[in-house]
Amino acid sequence: MSEDANGSGETPAPAEHLNIKVTDNNNEVFFKIKRNTRLEKLMRAFCDRQGKKMESVRFLFEGARVQTEDTPDTLEMQDGDTLEVHQEQIGGR
């Protein structure tokens, strides 16, 4: 049985803040957010910085669409994870 550095045998608590990378085709923006912060705040900040409308883009984490009410905890995100941003496309031809 192994113990951690403080000898208690407990696993360390996860960090309160996460560094999340948000990337589209041309840009990478890094955000530091709390685990229980709604991702809507991050999504709006990214769109404001890039001059995009939130209704015109989609945020994906590991291929799944991110909802505004999601938090890093609900998505089980880790420090250094990436959100991908894609232009919304309806239909196709």
From TrEMBL:
Residue ranges of domain Ubiquitin-like in the record: 16-92
Biased composition (Acidic residues): 70-82
TM stretches of this protein: none
First and last residue of the signal peptide: none
Ranges for region Disordered: 70-93
Cross-referenced InterPro entries: Rad60/SUMO-like_dom, Ubiquitin-like_dom, Ubiquitin-like_domsf
Name this protein carries in UniProt: Related to ubiquitin-like protein modifier
Record organism: Cephalotrichum gorgonifer
